């Protein structure tokens, strides 16, 4: 299978992993076991490379999922973690040491921001946060100790973009690695490794799983890097749960249908909301008003294949925000994203609650910002749902 479209190949990934024949059951079964039996000492020695032993180290459900992620990201190998945050922290704490420096995009998911500003500095890893909208800011922040540059493709929740090929060049000219979070965009929209990134992380809890029923993260990279992470992961205890891996692999079968619809719905909703008088700004790279629209058109295939996420700027008025959310019928508030149901969230009280106000405002996050995760509903129903709630909130 190498000559079909991505949508078709995605359905048939992972049917064979070492030593396990997944062709007999029509779908991959869940291996509800913490360990596998062995008979001889020779077999015990063989297990490390060729078979499965203990679930914190290896598990067939994680392995089929990892193979599928590697296919999608076009990377050599992937590892499955307990969550997106587990993937991020385990990777940074494995690859960086005291005295190393990291340059991070100042527009970033709130909890990644906390790892950068609260956890890494405790291990004498210096983190410099700069605005990646201008690549010169990154260039200027590089020092001889810079080991890693970190960004999301489209930052949570304002969608500020990273120029992945330019960042890869800056990283490599200076002997550093580029690590990219693809959670908002997914490998269906963009494959950062093919644009020069060295490591890609996905919170698969979000769009990739899409059903809001399992938590997990992935890291994809070349063998030399993955080998180090693979050794450290069981020590951190951040290996993904087998049941979550099974659930995700099952849900991956519809990823192409779901995520493409979500991305196209988001572009349509963004264009419609931009016309509403209560909305002072819509953050979505498909819009011509988006400051990095030109970069988006360079990195993505089309306006409708960027991200199922957008955010809108409403007045900084709590009563008005409450009127808006209470007039929504099928869209609900939820502290997650990427599911097939459209949800919304208020970053100032949720994902970025622990980020200081001045830093939040510098990221473009005001108390009036609402983040919307677009589902697979009919696009006209979605536009109507938001428009009537905004009308009622005025
Ligand atoms: C961009 C981004 N990266 C990483 C994470 C962390 O993922 P998880 O909740 O699976 O740990 C999130 C969670 O919302 C996210 O939005």
Structure overview:
Its cofactor is pyridoxal 5'-phosphate. The protein is α/β, with parallel strands linked by helices. The protein has 2 domains: 6-252, Type I PLP-dependent aspartate aminotransferase-like (Major domain) (Aspartate Aminotransferase, domain 2), CATH 3.40.640.10; 255-393, Aspartate Aminotransferase, domain 1, CATH 3.90.1150. Helices cover 39% and strands 15% of the residues. The protein contains 15 helices and 14 strands. The chain has helices spanning 6-11, 41-50, 60-73, 84-95, 110-119, 135-141, 164-173, 186-189, 223-236, 242-252, 255-273, 293-299, 318-326, 357-362, 379-393, and strands at 16-17, 20-21, 77-81, 101-105, 126-130, 146-152, 177-181, 199-203, 217-221, 281-283, 309-313, 332-333, 343-345, 369-373. Strand 6 (146-152), helix 7 (164-173) and strand 7 (177-181) form a beta-alpha-beta unit. Helix 3 (60-73) packs across helix 10, helix 4 (84-95) packs across helix 9 (223-236) and helix 11 (255-273) runs parallel beside helix 15. The model has no long low-confidence stretch (mean pLDDT 95). Bound molecules: pyridoxal-5'-phosphate (PLP).
